[in-house]
């Protein structure tokens, strides 16, 4: 009898351990003072897990986030008060990684690029609200690094040059409202350096002072 009891107890504990993770996963919800749903999602062992949804006080969807062991992990989508998509991000254990896309309030693309360990990395493109390109450039560890081109709202060039560790470096060119080259000069560690020139409509250069 003693042996039978021990086997039965072992079987019971095994079944209990098998299903305990299911019992540890719970639905969690919070509400605004008026009773409107504020957020909802699953908790596993007291930590956020899977998809979570957040709402504005009027019930409009605010965000959809994904979690793993209480940390943001996976795709995240954010919406404005009108329920329109304003951002798509990707996260890996609470650090923003991979592609990211952001939108203006009118639905036009605002900017897109890559994150690495929570910082801007590689090529990023920015846009005006009318869809025209605003600027294009590169980042390294969150700082502008490499070639950058800036545009006016009418699509003409505004300025172009390079950055190094977030500071202007080397030759930079500046354009007038019609996109004509107007000034050209050098930067060194973010400060104007060497000779600077004004370029007239015929392309002739005239040295100018920048002091």
Keywords:
single chain, 211 residues, mainly beta, 19-stranded antiparallel sheet, 1 helix, elongated
Would you mind describing this structure in some detail?
The chain has 211 residues and is mainly beta. The chain contains one helix and 19 strands. The protein has one helix spanning 2-24; strands at residues 25-31, 37-44, 47-55, 61-68, 71-72, 74-79, 85-92, 95-96, 98-103, 109-116, 119-127, 133-140, 143-144, 146-151, 157-164, 167-175, 181-188, 191-199, 205-208. It has a 19-stranded antiparallel β-sheet that branches. It is elongated and about 75 Å long.
TL;DR of this structure?
With 211 residues, the protein is mainly beta. It is 11% helix and 60% strand. It has a 19-stranded antiparallel sheet that branches.
- Quaternary state of the chains: single chain
Uncertain segments are 1-16, 18-22
- The helix tally amounts to 1
Termini separation comes to 100 Å
Q: Nearest-angstrom radius of gyration? A: 28 Å
Q: What structural category do the secondary elements indicate? A: mainly beta
Q: Summarize the helix and strand pattern as letters.
A: HEEEEEEEEEEEEEEEEEEE
What global shape is seen? elongated
Q: What's the total count of β strands?
A: 19
The largest sheet, given as strand count, sense and whether it forms a barrel, is: 19 strands, antiparallel
Strand content: over 45%
Roughly how much helix do the residues carry, as a percent range? 10-25%
